[in-house]
User: Which sequence fits this backbone?
């Protein structure tokens, strides 16, 4: 690997070990075996590097949302079974101690403290909203319209962040896929009776 890749991998390790705010440029350099100047050269700043490392980790874990490709041959897109299956895969990524999702809560809480990071992550979230639609509904990301991204994609991302918060702060009582699916069915039933 070159310095760019070494820095990215080092930043990922530091994020999981120390979090965003406690990770220093020197920490990344030490873990990656590079030098301080290479951070600026390849990424512009430590915060930009950490943001890219975080996005890369989210992309890696999002592959697990598909359950190793099992969704493609499993349930029908848009079905309640698909809904439960995808949430089951997502929740499985939250069960591990020191998971990426605890880091996500730190980054959300930072909010306006790091505008450069926030802009980078906001763009990544929009891409994520488009991608998550296809997990539940099938199809290809490039066919998901902006309107669907802004509605259904945002709905799923809102659910995801809420579930991440529950698993971060109270894993003992956080919902599993069955509880999430039962909640959806109750909402649908109430809406049909209204």
Assistant:
């Amino acid at each position: 690997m070159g310095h760019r890749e070494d820095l990215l991998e080092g930043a990922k390790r530091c994020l999981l070990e120390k979090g965003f705010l406690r990770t220093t440029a020197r920490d990344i350099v030490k873990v990656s075996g590079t030098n301080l100047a290479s951070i600026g050269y390849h990424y512009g700043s430590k915060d930009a590097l950490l943001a890219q490392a975080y996005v890369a980790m989210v992309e890696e874990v999002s592959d697990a949302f598909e359950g190793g490709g099992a969704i493609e041959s499993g349930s029908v897109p848009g079905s309640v079974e698909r809904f439960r299956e995808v949430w089951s895969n997502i929740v499985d990524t939250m069960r591990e101690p020191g998971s990426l999702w605890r880091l996500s809560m730190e980054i959300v809480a930072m909010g306006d403290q790091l505008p450069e990071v926030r802009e980078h992550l906001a763009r990544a979230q929009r891409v994520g909203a488009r991608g998550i639609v296809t997990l539940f509904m099938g199809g290809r990301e490039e066919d998901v319209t902006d309107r669907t991204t802004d509605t259904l994609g945002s709905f799923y991302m809102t659910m995801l962040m809420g579930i991440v918060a529950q698993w971060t702060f109270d894993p003992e009582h956080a919902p599993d896929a069955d509880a999430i699916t039962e909640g959806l069915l109750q909402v649908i039933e109430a809406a049909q009776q209204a």
Summary: The CA atoms of residues 13 and 31 lie 8 Å apart.
